[in-house]
Design a protein that fits this description.
two-stranded parallel ribbon, alpha/beta, about 270 residues, 7 strands, Rossmann fold, 5-stranded mixed sheet, 8 helices
């Protein structure tokens, strides 16, 4: 009951406060990757005295080696999710998310980083070393939008180059990350809107034939702190990016899966 009440309240809040985005329902279909007009998306101002004390959504940029890359769902997902964090939580959030490379000097300024489409990642030695330092010195990385055993095996090998001493551990549904703000009775899962429009609830890619259910894996350091969350068989960020394109998709995935889980992840990362 608590879960249904919380999700219903979230739905009402998103619909009432999100009129600017809701006006775009049904207006935008599939489009090539191009930077949209920022003025079509909500923005806000924070107290300039505390401009360095806000949460900034940071996305990892890397050299892509596959047909999807670091900019999957960018920048709409980052803009929309930052807005919902500002709207629905007590966090003060930077309205301008950033893109950062693993070798940038300012990587360590961001306690949370987001990596999309890890099938396309092949870390350089310098990137792997920098990511290792970042994670073992307090950073947290969320990885999203990868499906099937082939994509899993590829990124598993990449992460073993970064953290060879640690194995991903599958999380159970009773883990705190599924209950700290919004309560989930089942693992959340979102699919890309174009696959959903074809009747799929998952990405029909090689390796999903036997299992396309969602799984969440944590990588924990020697102090048992989760430093990486792998959202496997999931595309949560599509629920962020595409919230303004279809009302049914918005209600089914953005409201009930992507935003609640995203908020839970940020809350967990910032309090552990």
């Amino acid at each position: 009951m608590r879960s249904r009440i919380a999700i219903a309240a979230l739905l009402c809040s998103l619909i009432i406060a999100g009129n600017l985005i809701a006006q775009r329902w049904g207006r935008r279909g599939y489009r090539p990757r191009e930077i949209p007009d920022r003025s079509e998306f909500p923005t806000w101002e924070n107290d300039p005295l505390f401009e360095k004390d806000v949460f900034t959504f940071a996305r990892i940029r890397y050299t892509p080696h596959y047909h999807r890359g670091w900019d999957a769902d960018y920048p709409e997902a980052d803009w929309n999710f930052s807005y919902r964090l500002q709207e629905l939580t007590s966090l003060k959030v930077n309205p301008n998310p950033v893109v950062v490379e693993l070798t940038d000097d300012n990587l360590f300024d961001y306690p949370f980083v987001f990596l999309s489409a890890p099938m396309s990642v092949i870390f350089t030695e310098e990137e792997a070393d920098s990511l290792r330092q970042y994670l073992l010195n307090g950073g947290f990385m969320m990885v999203d939008e990868f499906w099937g055993t082939y994509q899993w095996d590829h990124f598993y090998e990449q992460m073993k180059r970064v953290l060879p001493e640690f194995e991903p551990q599958e999380l159970s549904i009773d883990h705190e990350i599924f209950h700290n703000v919004y309560h989930f009775d089942e693992f959340p899962q979102a699919t890309a809107i174009h696959f959903w429009q074809q009747g799929y609830t998952y990405h029909p890619v090689p390796g999903t034939e036997l299992d396309h259910s969602p799984h969440f894996f944590g990588i924990f350091d020697s102090n048992h702190r989760m430093i990486v969350l792998l959202c496997y068989n999931n595309d949560l960020c599509d629920g962020w990016e595409r919230e303004g394109e279809d009302k049914e998709f918005f209600q089914r995935f953005s409201v009930r899966q992507s935003y609640p889980m995203g908020i839970n992840i940020i809350t967990y990362a910032m309090t552990h």
